[in-house]
Amino acid sequence: MTDDQTKTNDGQRFDRLPATAEERKVAGRATRKEILDWWQERFGIEPETFEGHSFWEKGKGKIWILRGDLDSPVRIEALGMTFLRTRQRHWKPTTNAAQRLGGLANKNVLELDEEQANRFVRGEDQELDWEGDWGYLIVSHEIAGGREPLGVGLYLHGELQSLVPKGRQRDL
Q1: pTM, rounded to two decimals
Q2: Cα angle for residues 34, 18, 93 (degrees, 5° grid)
Q3: pLDDT at res. 134
């Protein structure tokens, strides 16, 4: 693969994210440091959580996480777990990432009561009072004495929008 080919996004190829901005070859591509900083600033999840993991971009702004590492680039259909959407005004964690890592979050976690949680997993938007930051939140509910992350919500102007994908919505 030529150096020019690795300087562009390709929806058929995974490219490992550069560690820092100084190593960036593709304009606009997130770096490992930016991702670790974002998770820490937004949700309070420490960078050490991601030791032993590599981050990959496929297409434009679709970030995947993989335990371990591979040579880059990689031409396969899927790699690890979808993790984060970048290259938009506000970065958005995936439902998978929220459910796997949300238990470690100590910031921007909105805990819902049973009725609210049921509405959320059905995909319904709802008006709620929230004193925290607006934007993408990890939404959780207490189950069996512990906080269980349900997914990602978008909180704006007093409304929580459920971002549970249609195929994962449930009527409990």
Answers
A1: 0.89
A2: 45
A3: 95
Closest of 20, 44, 46 to residue 32, by C-alpha: 20
- Measured CA distances, 37 to 1, 18, 20, 159, 167 (Å): 31, 14, 11, 27, 31
- Give per-residue burial for 133-155: e unless 16+ CB within 10 Å, then b: eeebbbbbbeeeeeeebbbbbbb
Cα–Cα distance measured from residue 11 to residue 9, given in angstroms and rounded to the nearest whole number: 7
Write down the pLDDT at residue 42. 97
Q: Which CATH fold topology does 102-168 show?
A: 2.30.130
Is the pLDDT score of 5 beyond 50?
A: no
Distance CA 120, CA 122 (A): 5
| CA-closest candidate to residue 11, choices 57, 65, 79 | 57
Whole-angstrom Cα distance, residue 99 to residue 120? 14
Looking up tokens 């970030």 gives 63
The domain ranges of the chain are: 5-90, 102-168
Contact 35, 17 (CB under 8 A): yes
Query: Cα dist. 121→16, 22, 149 in Å?
Result: 33, 41, 11
